[in-house]
Amino acid sequence: MGSEQQLERLWERLPEHERGNAHTKCYLAWRELQRRLEADADVDLLLEKSILPEAERWKILLQRILDIVMFLGEQRLAFRRDSEKIGDTHNGNVLGILELLARYDPLLQEHVGKVKSSQEKGTRLQAHYFSPESQNEFINICAAQVRNHILEERKVSKYFAIMVDGTPDASHTEQTTFILRYLTNDGEISQFKKDF
Hints:
Layout: H1 3-18, H2 21-38, H3 43-75, H4 92-102, H5 106-121, H6 132-156, E1 160-168, E2 174-183, E3 189-195
Antiparallel strand pairs: 1-2, 2-3
């Protein structure tokens, strides 16, 4: 059977296919999709548009918490005390500063209110980033960034020295301290200390 005969048979069957239910359904679905895409009414687009404000809200909240962690670290202040409850006078600097900023920041005020309400009810929010574990994660991320920056500065410095000292603590566990001193390109002496 030659290719011309195949084309001829296909040509004869094409009108039958076009009138069939399967072709009609697919054609209508394609036209509906085209109409939605032109009107920006696609389900994925609508879902993405609804997610973007929520993602932006969390980004702003996390930036506020990160700023507090950076501030307390720069000032060498304690992060926590005895309590993890919003509104408690013994809840530490992170939660205390969050409460203070919430007085002036509507987004933070709403979030702190949700956390406080869940704490009063004894329920747990899925994520609120006020817990000691979250604070430790922020501290570790900031510490890694600072350490990487220092090591990059050390790589381009002309002179550096490393000092190591070890001593047992009260529980007879060896505590080792590494001190890195280096001369920056602008002639300033910098020092980095890490205890293990």
